[in-house]
Amino acid sequence: MGEKVWADVPERWKPLIKKAKDIEGWDSLSAYIRELIKKDLVSKGLLGQNGQETIKQED
Q1: Is residue 52 assigned to a domain?
Q2: Which residues partner with 47 through β-bridges?
Q3: 3-state secondary structure of 32
Q4: Which of 15, 21, 55, 56 could form a disulfide with 32 if both were Cys (CB 3.0 to 4.6 A apart)?
Q5: Are the C-beta atoms of 5 and 18 separated by less than 8 Å?
Q6: Which residues contact 7 (CB under 8 A, 6 or more apart)?
């Protein structure tokens, strides 16, 4: 696997994150967070639909 990332979140978010992970059907928090990051990169045009990097042109 590639680089590891982590973040500090408020204590009150922990049960909310777990609930969201369960709603989405993910077995692990790591897989759920990875999918959130992937969706964010795709929405910004930085990652293609098949996980391929794309070059975003700056204006």
Answers
A1: no
A2: 53
A3: helix
A4: 21
A5: no
A6: none
Identify whether 21 is part of a domain. yes
pLDDT profile of the chain (59 residues), mean per 10: 90 98 97 95 85 59
Domain range for 26: 11-43
Report yes or no: 44 and 33 within 8 Å, Cβ to Cβ. no
Distance spanning both ends of the chain, measured CA to CA: 33
Question: What pLDDT is attached to residue 2?
Answer: 85
Look at residues 39, 27, 33 and name the one whose alpha carbon lies nearest to residue 13: 33
Is residue 20 in a domain? yes
Please name the amino acid found at residue 17: I
* Token pair recorded at residue 16: 């909310």
